[in-house]
Amino acid sequence: MTIAQALTLAVTHLRDSCSQPRFEAELLLSYHLNKERLYLHIHEDELVENIEKFQALVDRRKAHEPYEYITQRASFYDIALIVSSGVLIPRPETELLVDRVASIIKREKIEEIVEIGVGSGAISIILARKFPHLHITATDISEDALAIASQNVQEFGLQEQITLLQSNLMDKVTTKPQLVVSNPPYIARDFKLEKNVNDYEPHTALFGGEVGDELLHKIIDDVQSRGVKWLACEMGYDQKASMQSYLNALSIDFSEFYQDFSSFDRGFIVKF
Ligand SMILES: C[S@@+](CC[C@H](N)C(=O)[O-])C[C@H]1O[C@@H](n2cnc3c(N)ncnc32)[C@H](O)[C@@H]1O
């Protein structure tokens, strides 16, 4: 079977499970052949070796497994991170949280921060690359997530800047951070997620409790009780009112909410 034929066949299989079947068919074939997507267009008549292995990849995607888990790579900011089923696939909107935090770090000349819920390492790795003087203690409750984060930290040579710690929130943190950043699980327990998310991504990375914002509340309380000045968090699109009223009941200097690319409320910054 040629490259063109393999792509046509893959598209017919992926039509019901993917919003961009042609694009994802190309991603899977590029991964199978270990070539750039452009190669597929220039070599349409070339035969595909081990076609059954490519078909097995297509079958996984047809069963709604995210292509990032199949190819074991996810794009975030300007890098590709190793991912596996033990970690959340980093989302584009989390880049906005990184941008917010980066501007505070730069303006306030911050040198010591904590990330709660490091997952694949996406947030900490981008921040460490942007600020070579920055030290980050990055926690996660999940051993699987920490194992993947560790691989990514090593891949980018950031072991000196990022200390990974298995911990519930900041329980095991002994440093004195000037800022805490977190994209915690914030989805309500009974929220109906898409099959590719619900069946494949780790539930410890998704669900924040019955209401969803329980961990966010704990993070705010923990950060305030430690006397940390800055907190930046991602949250659910429908959590602004409840988070605002939670923050209003505390003595804080300043808070601000931000929206994502689709103009949904997506996170907040607090100065205590
Ligand atoms: C939404 S994911 C975010 C992953 C990554 N920071 C990102 O933005 O792609 C949330 C992460 O928090 C971790 N987590 C959940 N509960 C936690 C807790 N109580 N303490 C520390 N980490 C926790 C999960 O294992 C998961 O890796």
Describe this structure in words.
The structure is a single chain. This protein has 272 residues and is of the alpha/beta class. It has two domains: 3-63; 87-271, Vaccinia Virus protein VP39 (Rossmann fold), CATH 3.40.50.150. It is built from eleven helices and eleven strands. It has helices at residues 3-14, 21-33, 37-42, 51-62, 67-71, 94-108, 122-130, 143-155, 195-198, 214-225, 240-248, and strands spanning 73-76, 79-82, 112-116, 135-140, 162-166, 179-182, 187-188, 207-209, 230-234, 254-259, 265-271. The strands form three sheets. Strands 5-4-3-6-9-11-10 form a seven-stranded mixed beta sheet, sandwiched between helices. A two-stranded antiparallel sheet has the order 1-2. A two-stranded parallel ribbon has the order 7-8. α1 (3-14) packs parallel to α4. The longest helix is centred in the middle third of the chain and has 15 residues, at 94-108. The chain is elongated, with a radius of gyration of 20 Å. The model has no long low-confidence stretch (mean pLDDT 96). Residues 87-88, 90, 94, 116-120, 122-123, 139-142, 145, 168-169, 183-185, 204-205 line the site of S-adenosylmethionine. S-adenosylmethionine binds next to α7 and β4.
